[in-house]
Predict the 3D structure of the following.
Amino acid sequence: MTGQPKRRRDKVDGLLLLNKPAGMTSNRALQQVKRLLNAKKAGHTGSLDPAATGMLPLCFGEATKVCAYLLDADKTYRVTAKLGVATDTADGDGKEIATAAVPELTADEWDSILQGFMGDSEQVPPMYSALKKDGKRLYELARKGEIVAREPRAIRIDRIELLEAAATRLVFRVSCSKGTYIRSLVEDIAAKAGTVAYTAGLHRETVGDFEAAGMLDMNAVEALAAEGRLQEKLLSPDVALSAFPAVEIGAAEATKFQGGQAVQAAAEATSGLARVYGGNEEFLGVGELSGDGWLAPRRVFQMAEIAL
């Protein structure tokens, strides 16, 4: 008796900005959209906790090559903190481990505390995180009741804005560098105010240059898939690389570049990574410019096969 034949997957290439719903892991959200697109290859950038909502860039096919660049992107979050209570996971899913009185501060006083976190600093990651210590995930150790020393990590807060401060509820918006743990930030803010807190709500609004208006929620994704129109909403991979300058090369150079060879390129940028285009604005990949005008391929994209 033979098994069921494998389902044939389609070559689907592009980016989709999902507004991840609460209660769903990032990987489950990815697999659901991958199934709706019947895509061969997929990946996501920057996991969100299951309870969190908001922007989760999903990458399909050739677009999976930009995942690493998006992981390095700055992000913006809308954060709701519950003051006066601490949990072992630093969010609402954890076990209560401490309580403290909440000081009666004015909005200006809360804002002053928030602004004190602006700029470069170091942050100790939470125990409930996917970071590894001696080959073990920290959250695996935490679930066993183990607490281990964690090395502080460099982070950067570019903007922090108070939205609401009422009784035990604090709401703010923060734009920060990669690697910033919002749960730890909430605990640190509470400590500065002389109390404790946990992250009660987290919504990611932006990733890099992607704005909230470009997101689709899961209901919209399912409806578009049912109409056979979901692929129309995919973005070309190069939109994730808008921070890099664009360089255009000729047909002969394009063939060499896609074959893995460095080529000469006339560009204003003298060094660093760049988006590379051939004729008819065809995106060829990511190259690195050297000071002497050479352009070396770093990630080559076969965009001729992509139909968005």
Notes: Residues 26-37 form the longest helix (12 residues).
